[in-house]
DNA sequence: CGTATCATTGAAATTTTTCAAATCTTGTGG
DNA sequence: CCACAAGATTTGAAAAATTTCAATGATACG
C-alpha cells in the first residue's frame, strides 16, 4: 500500500470512472484515493460484512462471489482493469471480492466517494451506464448458468478469455495461445460446475482438436470455429 | 391503449421513478407518457430488436427472458408494479419483456425519456440506485440457478411468492393461501428446470406436508419452517 | 360438453456429481 | 541443479439428480 500517486500516471485514467472528471476534479479525488495491492487469494470485501470502500481496479483480475450457508460457491462476476469495485449506498456487502492474481487498486472510503458521485453528474451517469451494462451481462450469464451444458459453458468461457487476453498467435488468423488466469477450481466456480467436469470437458475439447493444453495454465485455441460451434 | 391519464391518479405515483419528480416536472413527463395495456403473453420488447421504449409498470407482472439460438429459455427477471422497464442508452434490447398476466404500463419513447433522465439528477440517481439493487438481485439469482437443487429452488421461490403475495391466512401466523401467478412451465423457466421437475418437486413438498395444492394455481404454505429448511 | 392446454406421474436415458486414485506441476530447500 | 512435498489436475467407476419421452388425468374456456 503506497500513497502519493498521481492520477495522470494512472494506467486506467482514461477508462475508469475517473475518465468523466477534468484535471481539477481529479485532483480533488486524488486526495481521497489510496493505492492498494492485493495478493492472490486476498479479499477486499466480505459478503455480509460492512463494506467501507469503493475502488477502481488498476491491474489484475478480481472475482465477485456468493456462497450458500453450507459452503457452495458461485462466482457472480469477474472484474478487469478499469472496472469499478464496490457498492455505493449499501451498508453491507452482498458479495465477496477476491483477487485472482496480484491486483492493484485505487481505493476510496465509501462515504466520501458517494459524495463525489453525487456532486459530479457525469461520473454518476457513467456509473449508471456501467451498472446497466453489468446488469445485462449478469442476466446473460443467468441463461448460461441455468441452460447451457458443461461443454457449452466451457467453450463459451474459453472464447471469452481468448478475446480478452492479449495472447500471441503465429499468424494473423492462426491459433491464439495464452495463459488461463484461473485454476480449474476457479473456472468451476465461475461456470457452476465441479473441478472434475471442467477438467473432463477440457480434455474432450483437446482430444477433438479444438484446443491444446500445455501445463496447467497454458492453452491454445486451435480451432476457433469448432469452439464456437461447441459454445452454442 | 388510452391517453389523457393524470399522474396524480397513478397507482404507483409514489413508488415508481416518478416519485423523484415534483408536480411541475411530472406534468412535463405526463405529456410524454402513454398508458398501455398488455394481455397475458403479449410482449412489449423483443430481444435483438430495436427497443424504442421505456416504461413504468403500473399493474401486473412482466417477465424478462433470454433464449439460446436453439430455443432454450431462461427468465432472467420478474418485474412488479412500480418497477422500471427498458434499457436507456441501448439501441437493441438484450431481453424479451412479456406480460405474465394482464398488465398496465406507462410507456415513454426512449430518446425523450433519456433526456428527462439527463435533466433530472434525482431521477437519474434513483434509477442508478434501483439498477444497483437489480444487479445485486441478478447476482444472487446466479447462485440459485447454478448451485441449488431443484427442491431448494422451488422452496425458495415459493417463499418469495408468498412474501410478495397478499394471500389470506386464517390466523395471524397460520398458513398463507394465494394463487401462483405463473404456470408450471413459467416457474420452470424462472428456476432453470423442466416442467416435469417443477411438478415433481411440488408434489413431493405437498406429500411432506410443507404445502398444499388446490387446482393448478392455488397454493397454501402449510409449514413455512419446513419450506425454509428446504430452501437452503 | 368438448377440446386445447396444463399438470402429473412413470420409466428410461443422460448428464453431472461424488468418491477414489493416480499423475502432473510448481516452488523450495538441500 | 535435483529431489521432494504440496497442491493441482486428470481419469475412472459408481451414484445421484435431472431430463427426456410417453402416457394419463385435470382444468378451463368457448
Question: What would your notes on this structure say?
Answer:
- Chains A, B: One of its GO terms (cellular component) is cytosol.
- Chains A, B: InterPro entries: cNMP-bd_dom (IPR000595), cNMP-bd_dom_sf (IPR018490), Env_Response_Regulators (IPR050397), HTH_CRP (IPR012318), RmlC-like_jellyroll (IPR014710), Tscrpt_reg_HTH_Crp-type_CS (IPR018335), WH-like_DNA-bd_sf (IPR036388), WH_DNA-bd_sf (IPR036390).
- Chains A, B: It comes from Sphingomonas kyeonggiensis.
- Two copies of one chain form a homodimer.
- The first copy, chain A, is of the alpha+beta class.
- Chain A has two domains: 7-146, Jelly Rolls, CATH 2.60.120.10; 148-231, Arc Repressor Mutant, subunit A (Orthogonal Bundle), CATH 1.10.10.10.
- Chain A is built from seven helices and twelve strands.
- Chain A has helices at 23-30, 110-119, 121-147, 150-164, 184-191, 195-207, 224-231, and strands at 34-38, 43-45, 53-59, 62-67, 73-79, 84-85, 96-99, 103-109, 168-169, 176-179, 211-214, 218-221.
- In chain A, the strands form three sheets. In chain A, strands 1-8-3-6 form a four-stranded antiparallel β-sheet. In chain A, strands 2-7-4-5 form a four-stranded antiparallel β-sheet.
- In chain A, helix 4 crosses helix 7 and helix 5 (184-191) packs across helix 6.
- At the A-B interface, strand 4, strand 5 and helix 3 of A face strand 4, strand 5 and helix 3 of B.
- Chain B binds a DNA duplex (30 and 30 nucleotides) through helix 6.
Amino acid at each position: 500500500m503506497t500513497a502519493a500517486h498521481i492520477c495522470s500516471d494512472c494506467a486506467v485514467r482514461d477508462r475508469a470512472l475517473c475518465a468523466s472528471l477534468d484535471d481539477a476534479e481529479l485532483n480533488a479525488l486524488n486526495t481521497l484515493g489510496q493505492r492498494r495491492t492485493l495478493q492472490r487469494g486476498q479479499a477486499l470485501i466480505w459478503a455480509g460484512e460492512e463494506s467501507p470502500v469503493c475502488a477502481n481496479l488498476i491491474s489484475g483480475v478480481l472475482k465477485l462471489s456468493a456462497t450458500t450457508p453450507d459452503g457452495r460457491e458461485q462466482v457472480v462476476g469477474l472484474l478487469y482493469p478499469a472496472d469499478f469495485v464496490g457498492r455505493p449506498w449499501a451498508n453491507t456487502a452482498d458479495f465477496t471480492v477476491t483477487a485472482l492474481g496480484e491486483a492493484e487498486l485505487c481505493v476510496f472510503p465509501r462515504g466520501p466517494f458517494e459524495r463525489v458521485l453525487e456532486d459530479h453528474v457525469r461520473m454518476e451517469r457513467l456509473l449508471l451506464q456501467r451498472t446497466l451494462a453489468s446488469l445485462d451481462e449478469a442476466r446473460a450469464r443467468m441463461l448460461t448458468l441455468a441452460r447451457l451444458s458443461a461443454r457449452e459453458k466451457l467453450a463459451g468461457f474459453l472464447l471469452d478469455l481468448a478475446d480478452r487476453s492479449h495472447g500471441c498467435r503465429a499468424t494473423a488468423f492462426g491459433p491464439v495461445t495464452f495463459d488461463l488466469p484461473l485454476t480449474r477450481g476457479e473456472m468451476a466456480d465461475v461456470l457452476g460446475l465441479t473441478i472434475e467436469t471442467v477438467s473432463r470437458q477440457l480434455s474432450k475439447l483437446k482430444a477433438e482438436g479444438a484446443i491444446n493444453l500445455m501445463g496447467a495454465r497454458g492453452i491454445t485455441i486451435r480451432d476457433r470455429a469448432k469452439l464456437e460451434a461447441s459454445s452454442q
